[in-house]
Amino acid sequence: MCGIAGVFAPHKLTPNRLKDALGIMSETLLHRGPDSHDTWLDENLQGGLCHRRLAIVDLSPAGNQPMASQCGRYILCYNGEMYIANELRMELSKKGHTFRGHSDTEVIVQACVQWGVVEATKRLVGEFAFALWDTHTRTLACVRDRLGVKPLYWAYRDGMFGFSSEISALMRTGLYETTINPQALNAYLTLGYVPEPLSIYTGVFKLNPGEILTYSLGKEPTCGSYWDFHALANKEPDGSIPYSQAKNQVHKLLKNAVRGRMMSDVPLGSLLSGGIDSSLVTAILQEYSASPVKTFTIGFEEQGFNEAIFARDVARHLGTDHHEHYVTSMDARNIIPDLPGMYGEPFSDSSAIPTFLVSKLAKTQVTVTLSGDGGDEIFGGYSRYDYAQRIAGYMKILSFPKAVGWFLEKIPTALIPTWLGKSYATRLNRLGFILRSSPSHLPLHLVQQWVVGEILSPEWISSYHSMYEQKQHNDLIPSFMIADTLQYLPGDILTKVDRASMAVSLESRIPLLDHRLVEYAWTLPQTYKRQAGGSKRILRDILAHYIPKHLIERPKMGFGVPMGEWLKNDLHAWSRDLLTSDTAKLYFHHDRLMNTFDQHVSGAVNNPYRLWNILSFVSWHKSHH
User: What are residue 139's DSSP bridge partners?
Assistant: First the structure.
């Protein structure tokens, strides 16, 4: 995939200043597209587009961008892959369009000529973000794919509109203010990432998934949806569909999604953790591949965080060309100083570290990978869904849940038996906090990292209401899944995958987020996805056609690192320096913060993710200010 950016600043910039801004943006996005770069410039309009290309399909110059339509009216700057390009090319050819090469870029720009940007976008299948400039109407359309696989930032200030694949490319131009948005900071401390449409900077935004932004010279940008996931997910499930039929259709749609994503003129492989989702994607990929698929796994010395042994067993059974690399704690920790630059915003998902490392490993062999991301959101795989159901049950049967909650929240750590572990005290205290709260806030409290008022300095506190506080659906678990899909998936999971892979110029494709599969999954009853026997029922049953159950049926591990131990040992001095810095004192209740840190280091309370949240922010702040 690629990097895209642009600036339109009528009567605001000299030609040289405009060229400098586009040059800075292009250079900042070099890692996203090292194969070629080019710029389209209109000095009279004081606007231009720049593109960095990672060549995947049609490696010839015929695929270079920015690309003009054959009629010359439209200029396209595009990041992504589209998987029905051949079908659309044939349809457009019948309508009189001709093509210079076989890139999907050319298909998209000609589709926009034929049907207009909204209708053309509705026909696309894939992961994409693009900007289309209409030279006749002097209007720019910025588009993001339905689930938010590909990023797009935008800003409008003093008549200057800019956009980019990454926030750093916008900010390094010097055209936009670097003032921290208090609402975004509150959201970050709550969730561990800055959710759409906010960015950490005031006046800079992320385009929401499934939206088109329209900007006309001299006018404020406007945004509108072309795909409404919320409406889709709130339709009544079709209980008349037999389970066997549903399973066969999900299998068929997933096969189509994987097969389409095999399109490539460069080497392709798969990221394999050994879990349900990545194993299923890899199994189907191997089924369609004429030779052993290259698979990649990162292993850790700490056994509680090591999935490599499971991935190895799956790879052996499927007959893939498996590559694994065991990294030391030092290897992983050495990545930490690079994270602020990689993400451009504060981002506290510690699995960003192994995600980068496995991407780096894969890049030694391939340029494109498939991953299993998205299965948990679409098919109900997160353990917090089970936890939410249990707590909701407690709230119903307890006569005085708030009183019980108060008692659990106040249990001293010293009273917790040693054999249970001190982390059990944290869980009981957290359960107590949840029981004291309103049942409607249950999803929020299960994902919440900080209660902002307890840690943030008063002058930075701002109102922020996440999707987890809003009723997304009449039933608890579907409501939770909708919020995860709309907020956690693009804000955390897909951000992590995009930045980690693009940092090493690796394209990542995500079959489980093919929108046709997502749409069908939400027509199915919840019992087809989740039941007493476990989550992701339908995916598990499909996977059983490929892999024996004993290789898969194990507790969910996630893709983490032993952050708790690192903060006590190897990262202790680094952490204390950051937490005692002027930056930390400016934004946070310092005594409370240091008390949290000291409790964690002593083993009294286990708080690695809360601390990593603040450490990531302070580290980001020090590198960007």
Answer: 134, 216
Measured distance between the N- and C-terminal CA atoms of the chain, rounded to whole angstroms: 30
Distance separating alpha carbons of residues 362 and 366, to the nearest angstrom? 6
Average pLDDT over residues 211-230: 95
Report pLDDT for 533: 59
Beta bridge partners of 143: 130, 212
Q: pLDDT tens-digit profile of 361-379?
A: 999 999 999 999 999 999 9
Neighbours of 44 (CB within 10 A): 8
Neighbours of 65 (CB within 10 A): 28
Torsion sign (Cα): 438, 443, 445, 446: positive
User: Residue 489 half-sphere exposure, CB side, CA atoms within 13 Å?
Assistant: 29
Cα pseudo-dihedral 140, 146, 151, 157, rounded to 10: 40
- Predicted confidence at residue 80, as pLDDT, reads 94
| The model's pTM | 0.94
Q: Which residues contact 441 (CB under 8 A, 6 or more apart)?
A: 468, 469
Q: Looking at the predicted structure, is the pLDDT value of residue 345 above 80?
A: yes
Strands ordered across the beta sheet of 507-509: 321-327, 294-300, 268-271, 368-370, 507-509
- Nearest CA to 344 out of 501, 460, 200, 188 is that of 200
Q: Are 389 and 531 in contact (CB under 8 A)?
A: no
Contact assessment for residue 166 and residue 153, using Cβ atoms and an 8 Å cutoff: yes
Q: Going by DSSP bridges, is the β-strand pair 160-164/153-157 parallel, antiparallel, or unpaired? A: antiparallel
* CA–CA distance, 127 with 534 (Å, rounded to integer): 30
pLDDT for res 409 = 66
Share of the chain above pLDDT 90, in %: 74
Residue type for position 412: P
- At residue 106's C-alpha, the angle toward residues 104 and 107, to 5°, is 65
Q: Which residue has the higher pLDDT, 198 or 427?
A: 198
